[in-house]
From TrEMBL:
Topological relation to the membrane, as annotated: Multi-pass membrane protein
Protein name: Very-long-chain aldehyde decarbonylase CER1-like C-terminal domain-containing protein
Domain called Very-long-chain aldehyde decarbonylase CER1-like C-terminal: residue spans: 122-286
Subcellular location, record wording: Membrane
GO CC terms of this entry: membrane
InterPro entries: CER1-like_C
Length: 290
């Protein structure tokens, strides 16, 4: 039986995956999308959380019943405040037959590998997330200084950095570095603090608000271009270029292709380099090379 994958999705973008898409050297992978009737703004409403989680649980049960091997939670369906990055579902169904993937390791790998060679310091700004924690810890371990300007976010992140690398996480009011790694919640005034020529690299699922393109360079959200052998793919999200797919979704496909059985949900993060090189080996490649 070919590996199968289900990707739940809300109505905040488009995904052109076709059931039974051919995959060279791997026979056929059965891909399917379970659409949840919710828009992005619904996820920000406390009164909607129970209903959204109920819909996701139904999707998980449906995918499990159909024999899916992997279920990628997609984007908004894995929010920490919604379900603890999917941990809620593992606790509810500890013996489910499929593997849940939030895609954190690959999203973080895309961000880290987007940082220009030779960079020795970056600014990390925006709302904290699971991906932000992994990116910061990885950069600190690589001896790259991670500068934060938000005191509250700094104290949230500090305990999550390995002790032998924590000295690379710094709190400054300003910085002259021209590489900023940014998430949602970064307002215009914060962006304008960056020096002219700054490159903004998002770790967020959705693109940041762009202030001045003549002054700054904005990378796209973490994504990879799909292999040419994956057919019937147009745009995965409406802000991404053609044939680019969000890293969180790519991670689910790679998980299925590799036959990995470990969940990546809650606080669990897979080996970032292992997932990155697995994605490359299956024909996915960075959008910068497209």
């Amino acid at each position: 039986m070919p590996p199968s994958l289900i990707l739940p999705s809300g109505n905040y973008g488009s995904c052109g995956l076709c059931h039974g898409s051919p995959w060279s050297s791997h026979g056929y992978m059965v891909l399917g999308s379970l659409l949840r009737p919710r828009y992005k703004f619904h996820y920000g409403l406390n009164r909607e959380k129970e209903a959204i989680n109920s819909l996701i649980v139904k999707a998980i049960c449906e995918a499990n019943k159909k024999g899916a091997k992997v279920l990628s939670l997609g984007l908004l369906n894995q929010d920490q405040s919604l379900n603890g990055s999917g941990q809620l579902y593992l606790e509810k169904y500890p013996n489910m037959g499929l593997t849940l993937v939030d895609g954190t390791s690959l999203a973080a790998a895309v961000v880290v590998n987007s940082i220009p060679q030779g960079t020795d310091q970056v600014v990390l700004a925006g709302n904290m997330s699971k991906v932000a924690h992994v990116v910061a810890a990885t950069l600190c371990k690589k001896n790259i200084k991670v500068i934060m300007t938000n005191k509250q976010h700094y104290h949230i992140l500090k305990p999550k950095i390995p002790e032998d690398a924590a000295y690379n996480l710094l709190l400054y009011k300003t910085s002259t570095t021209k590489v900023w790694v940014i998430g949602e919640g970064l307002d215009a005034s914060e962006q304008l603090m960056a020096p002219k020529g700054t490159r903004f690299i998002p770790y967020s699922q959705f693109p940041p608000r762009t202030i001045r393109r003549d002054r700054y360079t904005y990378s796209i959200t973490p994504a990879m271009v799909v292999p040419k052998t994956l057919t019937n793919v147009h745009s995965c999200e409406n802000w991404l270029p053609r044939r680019a797919m969000s890293a969180w979704r790519v991670a689910g496909i790679v998980h299925a292709l590799e036959g990995w059985k470990d969940h990546e949900c809650g606080d669990t993060v897979l080996d970032m380099d292992k997932v990155w090189f697995a994605a490359i080996s299956h024909g996915f490649y960075p959008t910068e090379e497209a």
